[in-house]
């Protein structure tokens, strides 16, 4: 399918967020639902009918608009905005528009629910201690600089890998050791990019006094927690999408199917729907890369496989517990090996079309510029053990 001729409007994201904030501010059932329909229409138009002619930027617009649509579904349709409560706020002004609108922005800009009653405190990293804003900003700048260098170096390595190139070979066409290394070649730059974006957001929001330094816990959980697929996705990986990928499953499991809370049927129904939502959002990004068939990408298959893997490992853990096998160094080591092997086996399903259709087009390198005067990094080639 040819790329749409309509240029993606530069104002589409701020406009959509403003409409969303108006919806959260409104106390009218009909207004909220109507504004959700507007957001859904804008999202569909942006993803399926426009293009920036830059594949990575298309991907960013598509996943951002898809995420916003599902967040709006949660806040404007499935739940009443008045049910969301700030922990430090004993009461709020229900009469004045301005305080309610400011509160709406606070809610929207905190996808993990930091400082709100729905914050999953047992899941997220602990909040940092109170500190002067200038000290916090300096620490975030230093941390972002470190992640910039780490991400740039590993990204240069991935660009020396034929499987990470546009129209390249499969990342699975390498030796077994390299299959494992592929996981890190993808994950580290991804983590670095998200960390830098989050730290810049923390700097902006704390400087603007919208939030305090203690309202900015780390984006990622402890990597020592990632010894199962469930714990990797539920504790270690960033939880920014957790609320809006879970809301549809909660609604379907409890309100539509009326499944009893706490049962495996209820839990697995919500699990499958959560990964279906996440897979759909990422699939929108896959589609936007080249505007081919919607199912040309591999995101939906990859994320649905994660749900299957979690149900499988739950069964294995239950069998182990019934046999008296307790947690320990041996089981943890086996868990880490299982998790790493699983991603080494399944990531090509997602990443082959992801990189081959355009995400490998990112051409900037701080290291390349300083080292060789090549700010695209194209001349930097790092040796990789591809055949091992």
UniProtKB/TrEMBL annotation:
Pathway: Secondary metabolite biosynthesis. One of its GO terms (molecular function) is O-acyltransferase activity. It comes from the Eukaryota. The chain crosses the membrane at residues 6-23, 35-52, 136-157, 294-312, 332-351. Residues 216-304 form the Wax synthase domain. One of its GO terms (cellular component) is membrane. One of its GO terms (biological process) is lipid metabolic process. The keyword Nucleotide-binding does not apply. InterPro entries: Wax_synthase, Wax_synthase_dom. It is found in: Membrane. It is a multi-pass membrane protein. Keywords: Membrane, Transferase, Transmembrane, Transmembrane helix. Belongs to the wax synthase family. PANTHER family: LONG-CHAIN-ALCOHOL O-FATTY-ACYLTRANSFERASE 3-RELATED, OS04G0481900 PROTEIN. This is Membrane bound O-acyl transferase family-domain-containing protein. The lineage of its organism: Eukaryota, Fungi, Dikarya, Basidiomycota, Agaricomycotina.
């Amino acid at each position: 399918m040819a790329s749409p001729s309509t240029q993606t409007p530069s104002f589409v994201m701020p406009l959509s967020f403003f409409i969303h904030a108006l919806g959260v501010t409104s106390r009218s059932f009909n207004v909220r639902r109507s504004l959700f329909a507007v957001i859904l229409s804008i999202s569909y138009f942006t993803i399926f009918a426009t293009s920036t002619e830059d594949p990575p930027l298309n991907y960013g617009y598509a996943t951002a608009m898809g995420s916003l649509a599902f967040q709006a579904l949660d806040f404007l349709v499935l739940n009443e905005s008045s049910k969301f409560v700030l922990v430090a706020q004993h009461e709020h002004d229900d009469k004045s528009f301005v305080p309610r609108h400011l509160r709406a922005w606070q809610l929207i800009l905190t996808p993990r629910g930091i400082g709100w009653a729905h914050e999953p405190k047992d899941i997220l990293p602990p909040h940092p201690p109170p500190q002067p804003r200038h000290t916090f900003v300096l620490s975030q700048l230093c941390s972002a600089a470190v992640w910039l260098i780490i991400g740039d170096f590993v990204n240069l390595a991935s660009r020396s890998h034929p499987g990470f190139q546009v129209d390249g070979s499969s990342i699975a066409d390498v030796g077994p050791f390299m299959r494992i290394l592929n996981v890190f070649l993808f994950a580290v730059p991804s983590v670095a990019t998200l960390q830098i974006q989050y730290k810049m957001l923390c700097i902006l929001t704390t400087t603007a006094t919208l939030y305090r330094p203690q309202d900015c816990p780390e984006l990622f959980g402890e990597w020592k927690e990632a010894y199962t697929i469930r714990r990797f996705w539920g504790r270690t990986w960033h939880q920014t999408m957790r609320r809006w990928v879970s809301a549809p499953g909660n609604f379907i499991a409890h309100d539509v199917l009326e499944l009893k809370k706490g049962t495996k049927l209820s839990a697995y129904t919500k699990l499958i729907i959560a990964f279906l939502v996440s897979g759909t959002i990422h699939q929108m990004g896959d589609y936007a890369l080249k505007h081919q068939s919607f199912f040309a990408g591999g995101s939906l298959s990859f994320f649905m496989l994660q749900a299957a893997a979690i149900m499988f490992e739950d069964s294995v853990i239950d069998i182990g517990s019934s046999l008296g096998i307790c947690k320990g160094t041996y089981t943890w080591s086996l868990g880490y090996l299982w998790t790493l092997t699983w991603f080494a086996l399944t990531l090509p399903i997602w990443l082959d079309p992801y990189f081959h259709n355009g995400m490998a087009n990112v051409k900037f390198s701080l290291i390349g510029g300083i080292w060789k005067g090549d700010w695209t990094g194209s001349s930097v080639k790092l040796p990789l053990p591809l055949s091992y």
